[in-house]
Design goal:
The protein is α+β, with helices and mostly antiparallel strands. Helix content is 28%, strand content 25%. The protein is built from 19 helices and 32 strands. The strands form 9 sheets. The protein has a 7-stranded mixed beta sheet, with helices on both faces. Strand 12, helix 7 and strand 13 form a beta-alpha-beta unit. Helix 14 runs parallel beside helix 15. The longest helix has 28 residues. The chain is globular, with a radius of gyration of 28 Å. The chain binds pterin cytosine dinucleotide and CU(I)-S-MO(IV)(=O)OH cluster. The site of pterin cytosine dinucleotide (MCN) has 35 residues, from helix 14, helix 15 and helix 17.
Amino acid sequence: MSQALDEIKIGGLGASRKRVEDNRFIRGKGNYTDDITLPGMLHMEILRSPMAHARIKSIDTSKAWDIPGVHLVLTGEMMATRNLAWMPTLSYDTQAVLATDKVRFQGQEVACVIADDPYIAKDACEAIDVDYEPLPVIVNPEQAVAEGAPVIRDDKENQRDNVIFDWEVGDGGGTHRAFEQADVISRLKLHYPRSHPSPIECCGSIADFNRATSKLTVYMTTQAPHIIRAAVALVAELPEHMIRIISPDIGGGFGNKVPVYPGYVCSILASILLERPVKWIEDKTGNLISTGFARDIYLDGQMALRQDGKILAVRMHCDSDHGAFFSDAQPSKFKIGLLHSAFASYDIPVAHLTARGTYSNKAPGGVAYRCSFRVTEAMFFQERMVQAAADDLGIDQAEFRRMNFVRDEAFPHRTPFGFLTDSGQYAKCLDVGLKAIGYEDFRREQAEARKRGRLLGLGISTMTEPLGAGNSREYDILGIKMFDSAELKVHMTGKAIVRTGARTQGQGHETTWAQIVSHELGIPAEDVVVEEGDTDTAPFGMGTYASRSTPVAGAAVAMVSRKIRAKARKLAAHLLEVSEEDVEWELGRFYVRSAPDRGVTIQECAMAAYSNMPDGMEPGLENTAFYDPPNLTWPFAVYIATVEVDPETGVWDVLKLVAVDDCGVRINPMIVEGQIMGGLTVLPSAWETPGFELHSEVVTPCPHHPIGAKGIGECAAVGGPAAYVNAVMDALSGTGVRNIDMPLLPDRVWEAITYRRDVSGVPPVRSDD
Ligand code: MCN
Ligand code: CUN
């Protein structure tokens, strides 16, 4: 008889285990960067530019130096003597650490003061006298390429204009031919505005250089500690083994804590110069005006359609505003992230995307924001465009999607831009969603309400997200290939520690990685501790963003567990005195095939690894696995929102939101639901947050992931926005309004209803009459 453990009881795959990290968080016992105090620690503050574009005529720091308690005032000029005035970005550009020649965005770092406490440092910053000569300011791509526009990056030798790149992907000729066959061509232009990830905890670092040991330890808010270590080694030319990056608890990242910021660099240099720990904690204003933003792209697309509803081709152009430095975090190969994952949900024969990136006098970043490298923009545009096309053809929105979906049997499916999606049941997800929202009934109710002057709307959004970069053949950042690793140490009493190079920021890795070990080894999850974030102890990894942790680091956890199990099997054979081939595995236990009652537990094997190993076997039960995924994982989701818009004020409320997410096998269903709700809510308060109805009945295991899981961390933030916007647009159907750019503030909605016209959010001005 089987003596396998009950996987849910031991907290394995599928168990809605409470998050173990919350034990300390809800008690206020988290350990964030700002909680750390080191002996002799000094404090750093940054002086930021009040101007968006100006030449620096002079910087006078003498008054700051005179303030008692000031230890160091850093300027770009001083940084330059150490070759640190500029640093490389993640997209092969350069970024000013402290400005020397010009300031290029409002909030740019101009100088730093290191003092006994942050208040002295702040006062000293105010005592620095900077003489600026203002220059014309550019705030959007149109201005950037206009005749006579000032060249923002005149620091770069061959830069004669404000264009960063012109990039294209897809089949231009084929797309052109398909458009010639079209019965109807549908067009949509929109702006996805700049957004800021806004984690509760701002960025910060404590650099601690110890002259005696030559070791540099940096505590910092980073989602990717190993990448930072490599960057510090290469940029500051310090030996990598003498650098230790520790990412303590993180109070939300959302992409904001991927880039390298000047504050980190300055605190490191200051600590080296002063030989004392230097702490820099950014304030909210600093975080909002200077750290990695997201979106800010202008999309113009056309869809070639056959009268019966078949999508024949898509043509897209994207103008993206990257701010003053091209510092996007994205795979090297792609200039505009994974924007070309657009239209992956649909079976579209051919497509062509052109993209132009430009500089502006705005903060750099392009980190995306809860989105796998610009897939939010891709999916938003996909779903807005699909809605517009369905309207143009007079076909029901749900039906139009269904007829163009990639069919279940068509996987793996090659998207028109060349990705290979792995699996899914798109139509089934849609059916579940339509049933849950009560589609037919709502349409009737909507028509009835219209007669009484009430505006109801229903918006559908789907998303197919490329999660889990690499594989290493195609994905790298600055040449560093994207894979991950996990290390598992099983102690003699059967307790274990698992470490990865990912870095949880609230996603619950401390809970879920233990569940994967449980699933593979039958060790109860509570007997497995998870540790991440310290480069001296964690194995190499590319970090946590683009929902790549489960697809890559999580897979590595499964693979290392399997290595441990393989060794445990040998130990079991030895203990049971049979040959390895006669040993069978069931959860938590090896047994003799011919005599199932004779068995040993995984814990007994662990003890044997330290006390009774067979002759010639290397002792211990520890291992590391590197995992280079064969492909991205491709979760799918359908989000359906219903709204009511007040025609008098433009205020709108969400009546209901139904989410159907298929992220493959769910490790921890409760954490997955938390991720979905967080993604659908993002920044608004609980007051604006509707009740969500989440569905988990569609599960398409990822065919190439060891436990069948796909990523989930960003899906709802990727697919959610279009559901809300489509719902408002649906409420306005018949008014001739085709688009309102986000944010859908009441005044914009009111303007659209009242004047029956599109409302564009294009800065800097919009005509108000
Ligand atoms: N999970 C699961 N089953 C699956 C997939 C995931 O149980 N099939 C679990 C995972 O084990 C993990 C969580 O769900 O505990 C999220 O997993 P995953 O989708 O792999 O995403 P990451 O862990 O890589 O998280 C990154 C993602 C990103 S990129 C942003 S941005 C974002 C997000 O997560 N930032 C967050 N969610 C966030 N949630 C919080 N609380 N804070 C942030 O900063
Ligand atoms: Cu894109 S924001 Mo998350 O990938 O860290």
